[in-house]
Amino acid sequence: MDYYDGLSEKEIHYIDEARIIGRTEGNSKRLNDLCHKAYADYATGAISEMAYNKIYAVCMICKPDTKAPNF
């Protein structure tokens, strides 16, 4: 089973973008904004709970005082 199985193009884009921002900027305004936007889309049903949970996990890995993870 692939990590992206069952996800839409939009959901995959969110996850990939969160990884890129997290890797290059760590905890940043851009990553925070992306996570808030993903939540808004999840709350309106535009993205699935599964996708939101994956995006949220990437955002939480990039907390302050940690180095950006090497995905």
Your description of this structure?
The protein has 71 residues and is mainly alpha-helical. 63% of the residues lie in helices and 0% in strands. The protein has helices at 9-25, 29-43, 49-61. Helix 2 (29-43) runs antiparallel to helix 3.
Summarize it.
This protein has 71 residues and is mainly α.
Keywords summarizing the entry:
single chain, 71 residues, mainly alpha, 3 helices
SSE ordering: HHH
Largest sheet: none
Number of helices: 3
Helix content: 55-70%
* Residue runs with pLDDT of under 50 for 5 or more positions: none
Report strand %: under 5%
Instruction: Look at the structure and give the mean pLDDT.
Output: 86
What's the β-strand tally? Answer: 0
Structural class: mainly alpha
